[in-house]
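hi!! sorry for the late reply, been swamped w classes. u asked for the two structures so here they r. pasted raw, havent cleaned anything up. first the sequence of the first protein and right below it the tokens
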Amino acid sequence: MATKHEQILQHILSLEIGHKISVRQIAKALNVSEGTAYRAIKDAENQGIVSTIERVGTVRIEEKKKDNFERLTFAEVIKIVDGQVLGGRAGLHKTLSKFVIGAMQLNAMMRYTEAGSLLIVGNRVEAHELALQEGAAVLITGGFDTDDSIKQLADEMQLPVMSTSYDTFTVAAMINRAIYDQLIKKEIVFVGDIYTPYDRSYYLYSKDKLERWYELNEQSAHSRYPVVDAKERVVGMITARDVLDKNKDIPVEKLMTKNPIVVQDKTSLAYVAHMMVWEGIELVPVADASNRLKGVVSRQDVLKALQERQRQPQMGQTIDDIVASSLVSAEDDQNTFQAHVTPQMTNQLGTLSNGVYTALMTEAGSRLLRDYKKGDLVVENLTVYFLKPVQIDSNLTIKPEVLEAGRIYAKMDVEVFNGKKMVGKGLLMAQLIDR
């Protein structure tokens, strides 16, 4: 039987897109406490099926697919520009395909305004009306209002008319930045993208006899399984080491490792990879907010996804991406790397930031290890000596040297030069992820 938390989530999913919900309303409708209703609504917001908007409330929205994640909903636009909804609240869940700045003649403006777009304009009531008739939403800048007839038309067409106190070009810059941030987020791989679902996973119940482990081992050839209780909540892990030379009639709960590490589908691939290396784990259960088993993710799943990720084109750039793209092998020595210090790499004083400094060292060391065919690394410790400041537009030479490299561990010395002068030095210790 579904828990109260799950019943609330199912109820929210059954509501129409655009339906406004509240803690008190949910508590009354499903006869639960307001605390239980509040926690379920917050979980629904984390899952992307509702959105809480200031001065509007919590609204049921359409769950976005990952391949369409770079598009913003109008509800998200409201949050970005700190705005308010004047009309057409039922259309807040819709996504905008593009935005148009209304700083031109009306006829020219309408040539660019189409269904699914967002017109950013001041207090030009005629433009508001024409945009709605074309199927576009409207964002009014400068804190202006609009006519009641426009608000009524927006309600009828379920297209939001919104207002913000920012000026037109500030709003355009804010939305552009949000879309760019979404592009970067879109590229982040999560456990939910790669794990093996519950219905295709192997697991044991805590009350099972050990004999069940041997049955699963014969079926799957795996040796590690999550252990769940009667409500299918993860309570342990059991491996071949736990069952060695044990009587097959012993209950699994007597031999399992209790309180195992569990991840959720929103956990990033990078975090799981680091944890698996750090803890020496081969398989991790994936659970929901109530700790109920959703599936498993294995070391092989993670390695395969990491390799696939490296082959994908980059759409948005983080600081680490900028560092990686700026680092090139020296022409006369493939084990030496060069980088040019760009404005994005500097601090407020115009010198190379400490974060970028360490990122350059780590990236150079990682590339050298890849050339040795040792695999990728997870940094365990990095001791850096910043000997001299590095100015903007400097050309750096980075020389990593492997001091020790075993099967799972590496120790490296990294030196950074500006011209012929050493400006930085680091000692890097890392664990290796075999490819």
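now the second protein. again sequence first, tokens right under
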Amino acid sequence: MKKEKKAKEIYEPKKGLTGQGDDYHIYTMNMKEKATAFLLGMAGTFIVIFLFFKSVVLGLVAGIAVGIFIQKYYAAFLCEKRKKTLLMQFRDMLEGLTSSYSSGKNTNGAFSDAYGDMVQIYGENADIVRELKIILMGINSNINIETLLEDFADRSELKDIRSFADVFEVSVKQGGNIKDIISATRDIINDKIEIEMEISTLLSGNKNELNIMMIMPLIIIVSMEGLGSEMTVTGNSPLNILIKIISLGMFAGAYILGRKITTIKI
């Protein structure tokens, strides 16, 4: 009993928050990332507003507002990107675990070898390396490996890691072949990633066309004004402003709808 109490004082996994691992559904941007999001949002908005309304002041005001507003969406983008990277790293970790189990290593030795492999491949600061370090610390503190994997799955919010943690727990309790389970999980994740890559390749052309279509109206406006065309809506009368606002709304709506159509999650 005293030993268990001491172990919990060293490391106590909690659902969604361990104190040592990260919650992957929460992304805190650093100053560089915040500045990047702000500048991208501000620059893009300023260009669009200036081309439509010919007002530097309005462009700056709208640009600053969008630059601040876009922060949470850029954070969500980076969060999703981090999860995808973690899944790729997790797949490589399973590859290392399979090799270790095949060579006759026990669970502790297999995870220790996987930690060394991931350090060599991704470096000390990689997410999977930090997670393996937490798992090894938990093992040394007499925490069940199933509990540690469950905690990892809770924080990552990735279905593949969740499935692996659940199957691993059942295997340990019922005496299943862990090597075969890890190998099967690795194969499933590999197949899923390959399918996602194929779909992404098929949709890449559509996404590029969507981006070009969103830029084309701006290019047309600049070209027509440069040629002195009378078809452009000039001036900032109430009617012209209304037409421009409606046009911008249609462009934004078309882009959002296009992104939803070309985004497929498995």
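hope this helps!! also noticed smth abt the second:
The two ends are 45 Å apart (CA to CA).
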